C-alpha cells in the first residue's frame, strides 16, 4: 500500500513547491515509486516538475458524461474509467503524474465521481508513495481524490492570519472526517524561530520551517522546474532533517 502524503493550506503558501521538493527528494534518494497527483484545477504541479501538459481527469469525465455511449458495449463503466485514468497517467523519469483538472460540463457527475474515487483508491496500491498537491483551502478539496492520507502537511506562512487559516483547515479536516493518520504544520519562507504558543493554538504538530530561498522564486518566475534547483539549497538540508516524518516508512 502506497504512503499518501497530501498538502493543504491557504493560497500561495507553497503547497506546490513543497510537493515538487518532496517528489524530487523521494526520487533522488531512490525511496520507491511515486505518483504525483495534481488535484488543483489550475494545475501547476506539472510545471514545477518540468512536465509537459497532458490529459486530465476533468476532461475524461466530461467526455464520458457527455457521451455515455463511449463506453464500449460489454465493458463495465468502472473498468472503462480505470482504463482511461491509466492512460492519463504520464510516466516521467523517476515519477508518474496524474492531473485531476476540472470537469466543465453541467451534468451530474456523482455516479462517475464515485466510481473514479474507487479507481484512484485502487491506484494507491501500485506505488510506494502518492504525493497530492491540493488546491488552496479545503472547502473545495477535490471530491475526486481520496479522503485518506497517511501524512497531511498544512503549509502556512508565519503570520497570525496564516496560522489561523491553518487551524481552520485542520478543524475542517476533522469535521469532514477525513482519514488522516498524522497531520503537521509546516511554516514556509521563514528563517526565524516561531513562537510555540502560536503553534499550539493551531492544534497541529509542528513539523518545521522551510527557509525563504531566492533561487526557488527565480526558478518559478522563469517557469523552470524544481529539478533545476542547486543541490546545496538550504531547503534540502531542512527537508532531509524533516524527512523521517514525511517519507520514512515505519
Ligand atoms: N521556500 C520558498 N522560498 C522562496 N520562494 C518560495 C518558497 N516556497 C514557495 N515559493 C514561491 O512562492 C510562490 C507560491 O508558491 P506555490 O505555488 O508553491 O504556492 P501554493 O500554495 O501551491 O499556491 P496556490 O495556493 O496558488 O496553489 C511561488 O512563486 C514559489 O516559487
Ligand atoms: Mg499550488
Feature tags:
250 residues; eight-stranded mixed sheet; Rossmann fold; binds magnesium ion; 8 strands; alpha/beta; globular
Description of the molecule:
By secondary structure, this protein is an alpha/beta fold. Helix content is 39%, strand content 21%. The protein is built from nine helices and eight strands. An eight-stranded mixed beta sheet has the order 3-4-2-5-1-6-7-8, with helices on both faces. A hairpin with a 2-residue loop joins strand 3 and strand 4 (95-99). The longest helix has 16 residues, at 160-175. The chain is globular. The structure holds adenosine-5'-triphosphate and magnesium ion.
Summarize the structure.
This protein has 250 residues and is an alpha/beta fold. The chain has a single domain, classed as Rossmann fold (3-Layer(aba) Sandwich), CATH 3.40.50. It has nine helices and eight strands.
Radius of gyration equals 18 Å
CATH topology: Rossmann fold
Helical fraction? 25-40%
CATH homology superfamily name: P-loop containing nucleotide triphosphate hydrolases
Strand content: 15-25%
Strand ordering within the main sheet = 3-4-2-5-1-6-7-8
Element-level helix/strand string: EHEHHHEEHEEHEHEHH
Instruction: Quickly name the level 1 CATH class.
Output: Alpha Beta
First CA to last CA: what distance?
13 Å
Morphology call: globular
Assigned CATH architecture: 3-Layer(aba) Sandwich
The biggest sheet amounts to: 8 strands, mixed
Q: Give the structural class.
A: alpha/beta
Q: State the oligomer.
A: single chain
**Number of folding domains?**
1
Molecules bound to protein: adenosine-5'-triphosphate, magnesium ion
